[in-house]
Design a protein that fits this description.
four-stranded antiparallel beta sheet; Neuraminidase; 291 residues
């Protein structure tokens, strides 16, 4: 058994939660939370808020987030957020200062950035489906997967052939990138070159309405799907399934041993336990894909 069958609801009463990120002790953003210590942070998209959670207590980290969706930490401990409504990627530092990192591709506004991950060299990868924008307001005819190097002036479009690009995550060595296509019902796996270029594409696994993705230290891939959390081994074989009272959108490993799994599922946060710790901080191999 890779995961405990016990599912615990730890917080509720939200509108639509997403974007869970675990703050470890010493992360700069912990000073902005009421916890003042390691804790979970997450988005409530319709409420346009970022919350923190620790030991049964919750509080507001940020308001007026532009309906922030997916979140992640960068190498400097800043929080990167996909501002669904504002159609941009932003960064909040340890002082609470917000900076816009990207909102346009070739002069046209992004659709509605959904989920984001960072590589240990500082490069940022994100998906841009149109969930948060009316069809008449779209300026891009495709739904992209992008790479952002903050030292360069323009976004790099990596893929424009997804129907609904959604959650994404790096392998434990950062050599591979997994991207969910919610509409097609599968995860695509890419080799990631040192310059961010994606190659050697394959369908890694199939599942119903995949959304957020997280990996453990053994390389197992955890996916929020229509019926619950599905777990796939590094070869793409399903090895576990966890049912939840509400449909999950995303998940993150946390806790002192990184074996607690926090799941954002509609109006609530649920917690379950894994036998394997999460790969919260990947071990970099920035020579690029060798295959």
């Amino acid at each position: 058994m890779i995961v405990s069958p016990a599912v615990e609801k730890v917080a509720g009463g939200f509108e639509f939660v997403e974007g869970p990120v675990w703050l470890s002790a010493g992360d700069p953003l912990t000073a902005l939370t009421g916890a003042r210590a390691e804790c979970l942070i997450f988005s409530d998209i319709p409420a346009s808020r970022l919350y923190w959670y620790r030991d049964g207590q919750t509080g507001i980290l940020r308001e007026a987030t532009g309906q922030a969706n997916g979140n992640t930490l960068d190498a400097g401990g800043g929080l990167l957020s996909c501002e669904h409504q504002n159609r941009r990627i932003s960064r909040m530092d340890g002082n609470g200062i917000i900076k816009v990192l990207a909102d346009r591709f070739q002069g046209r506004r992004l659709n509605s950035p959904n989920d984001v991950v960072t590589r240990s060299d500082g490069m940022i990868f994100f998906t841009d489906p149109p969930y948060g924008v009316d069809a008449d307001d779209r300026e891009l005819e495709f739904q992209g997967v992008y790479c952002l190097n903050t030292e360069l002036p323009q976004l790099q479009l990596l893929r424009d052939d997804f129907e609904k690009p959604n959650g994404l995550a790096f392998s434990t060595d950062e050599c591979e990138l997994f991207v969910a296509d919610t509409e097609k019902g599968h995860l695509r796996q890419f080799c990631v070159e040192s310059n961010g270029i994606l190659s050697n594409e394959r369908v890694f696994c199939e599942c119903d309405r995949p959304d957020g993705i997280s990996l453990d230290k053994a390389g197992n891939v955890w996916v929020a799907c229509l019926d619950g959390i599905e777990v796939f081994d590094p070869d793409g074989q399903r090895i576990a399934m966890v049912k939840l009272p509400e449909r999950p959108a995303n998940l993150a490993f946390g806790g002192a041993d990184l074996k607690s799994i926090y799941v954002c599922a509609r109006t609530s946060i649920y917690r379950l336990q894994s036998e394997v710790a999460g790969a919260v901080r990947p071990v970099a191999n920035l020579q690029g894909c060798q295959s």
